[in-house]
Amino acid sequence: MSHTPAAVRHALTSAPPADAVPEQAADHPPAVYRVQYRNIENDDTVTLALDPDGSPLPPFAPGQFAMLYAFGVGEVPISVSGIPYGAGPLRHTIRAVGPVSSALHRLRPGDRLGVRGPFGTGWDLDGAAGGDVLVVAGGIGLAPLRPLVHAAFAAPRRFRRLSVLVGARSPADLLYRHELDRWRERAHVAVTVDRPDDGWTGNVGVVTALLNPVVTDPSHTTAFVCGPEAMIRHTARDLLARGLPSRRIRVSLERNMRCGTATCGHCQLGPLLLCREGPVVGYDRAADLMNVRGL
Q1: What rounded mean pLDDT belongs to the chain?
Q2: Is the peptide bond before 279 cis (omega within 30 degrees of 0)?
Q3: Phi and psi (nearest 5°) for 59?
Q4: If you compute the radius of gyration of the chain from its CA atoms, what whole number of angstroms results?
Q5: CA distance 259 to 275
Q6: What is the pTM of this model?
Q7: Which letter does DSSP use for residue 153 in this model?
Q8: Among 12, 144, 177, 181, which one is most buried in terms of CB atoms within 10 A?
Q9: Which one, of 21, 12, 11, lies nearest residue 274 by Cα?
């Protein structure tokens, strides 16, 4: 199933989880990285492959994020969508939605930016060992889940089955379309869209409609969910109804992160400071908080 070299498999599966912000991430200025190449995903989203212009940052784990600094504009938190092992680049998938992300979106090969990290908690794929892995992504939420899929591919004997369910607004909004085709050779992959175009022949509707054939042994399934909060809530509730324990549902949450170190408080969700205690948390911790209107 896997043709990944042994050294890379070890790196993918043994990257240290981040339970706290590393000292160098919080206290040091941004490391300078250079754009190696830029891949256009859709009209407003690109993936940047970054190489260090000096010493690289410490290793990232799937699910963690970096603070990316557009020089002269500002800094914004962006989850890693590709993790370097060996000589590979660090990848970030960026949607242009504000001044900083738009400035990052405009970067071209050779341009420089600042990177701080790693920050936050990872997906904890180790906790799914021996069972089924279910990945559920909505929109740009596929980006932080991509390194987890790669990590599962790198250690196929550790897991029984890998299923990847992807929802998008339209076919034009899908991320990593060609890569999804390659994933189908190694996992169950299903895609649905809200608004099909004339050439779309796939599923139409919400991503939870894809769950029926994949949740066959809920007590031995671990779900990893990322997307808009409404999608996360509906997916988690559907999984609970199918018998998944809440502690086996891992979700990635976003708030208005600014400092990356849980100092400013903008990332607060009830008692959680998501810069430090997230973005990935168990649904057993997140459920009550996500159901409070306006929190």
Answers
A1: 87
A2: yes
A3: -60, 145
A4: 18
A5: 8
A6: 0.87
A7: H
A8: 144
A9: 21
CATH number of 125-290: 3.40.50.80
Of residues 50 and 15, more confidence is placed in: 50
The dihedral formed by the CA atoms of 9, 10, 11 and 15, expressed in degrees to the nearest 10 = 120
DSSP state of 16: P
Cβ-Cβ contacts under 8 Å for 237 (sequence gap 6 or more): none
Per CATH, the homologous superfamily of domain 18-119 is Translation factors (2.40.30.10)
Which DSSP letter does residue 30 get? P
CB atoms within 10 A of CB 89: 18
What's the CA gap between 292 and 34, in Å, rounded? 42
Query: Could you tell me the two tokens for 278?
Result: 């997230």
The DSSP bridge pattern shows strands 221-226 and 249-252 to be: parallel
Cβ count within 10 A of residue 256: 11
Q: What 8-state DSSP symbol labels residue 25?
A: H
Residue 256, pLDDT score: 66
Segment holding 203, helix H or strand E: strand 203-204
Where are the domain boundaries for CATH 2.40.30.10 in the chain? Answer: 18-119
- The Cα–Cα gap between 165 and 225 comes to 10
